[in-house]
Amino acid sequence: MSRNTLPVLTVVLAILLLWYIAAIFLNAAWAYDKATRSGEVLTTQTLVADTWSQEKPKLPAPHQVGAEIWKTTVEKKITSKRSLIYHSWVTLSATLLGFALGTGLGIALAVGIVYNRTMDMSVMPWVIASQTIPILAIAPMIIVVLNAVGISGLLPKAMISMYLSFFPVVVGMVKGLRSPDAMQLDQMRTWNASATQTFWRLRLPCSMPFLFTSLKIAMAASLVGAIVGELPTGAVAGLGARLLAGSYYGQTIQIWSALIMAAALAAALVALIGFVQRMTLKRMGMA
Q: 8: which residues sit within 8 A by CB, 6+ positions away?
């Protein structure tokens, strides 16, 4: 544990140091302009203090972002529209629904691709081609089409999350289902195992490490999809809505606090999948 903790803390401290230094350079122009208009002479100490405490900085200092996160999580009620926990829950709902839909679709497509040569030759190229379309271009189209048929709210955002999350699951599961070598498959034929028995007894267990790796990527992609899905809708709730509101009013501290909250949420979800992976593989005797 200590061997893993020290490198991580070193990297975190290095990032914070660079962040503080970057805040000085990016916010210095406003500090000099303000000092010129007031006739003051900036010393190095006052320059640093000013660049780290501006109300609307180009780049907020880490302690400003931390204070904003504390104020909007601990000091606000969860039901408050200014609570980051409230907004995180709105985004998390769409993320989990999109992740579930994407995982189900990805596994179904992977099974079809592995067991059906026609699907392998026809569907797989389209699956790959679908990821070449920028999500910022397709998200408004999905929302407009679904709104036209009377579907709004959580489902359109979940569909965008599903669009981003199904691809890594398809690729990972196809690789996993095809991972048994020829000797293992010949042994199943020797036992006169059916295709269904081969799937449940050999292919699916062998695919578990690939599946969980894909799920981690899919979960992060699903969160990105949920946030992107909130942008073109003019949503009033969710982390995407916080980003929009911050950009409209030049509240960079609010923008950065929403970004850090999204990163923390993604890290927690990926860590949860990692925990389930360790428990599952351990129970299967693969860890």
A: none
Q: What percent of the chain has pLDDT over 90?
A: 32
Based on DSSP, count helices (H) and strands (E) in the chain, helices before strands: 12, 0
What does the block give as tokens for 237? 């709730």
Q: Is the pLDDT of residue 284 over 90?
A: no
CB atoms within 10 A of CB 34: 13
If phi over 0 gives left and psi between -120 and 50 gives alpha, with beta otherwise, what is residue 185?
A: alpha
d(CA 235, CA 152): 11
- Measuring CA to CA, how many Å separate 56 from each of 27, 42, 59? 9, 19, 8
Amino acid code (one letter) for 63: H
Contact 82, 76 (CB under 8 A): yes
Return the structure tokens found at 246: 């911050």
CA distance 230 to 251: 18
Handedness of CA 6, 12, 15, 17 (dihedral sign): negative
Task: State how far the Cα of 27 lies from the Cα of 22, in Å rounded to an integer.
Answer: 8
3-state helix, strand, coil in the chain (%, to 5): 80, 0, 20
Distance from C-alpha of 207 to C-alpha of 107, rounded to nearest angstrom = 11
- With tokens 């030759």, the residue in question is 121
3-state secondary structure of 172: helix
CA max distance for the chain = 91
Q: Which pLDDT band, with edges at 50, 70 and 90, does 287 fall under?
A: low
- With 0-12 / 13-18 / 19 or more C-beta atoms within 10 angstroms meaning exposed / middle / buried, residue 150 is exposed
Mean per-residue pLDDT, 84-97: 91
**Contact criterion met (CB below 8 Å) for 40 and 12:** no
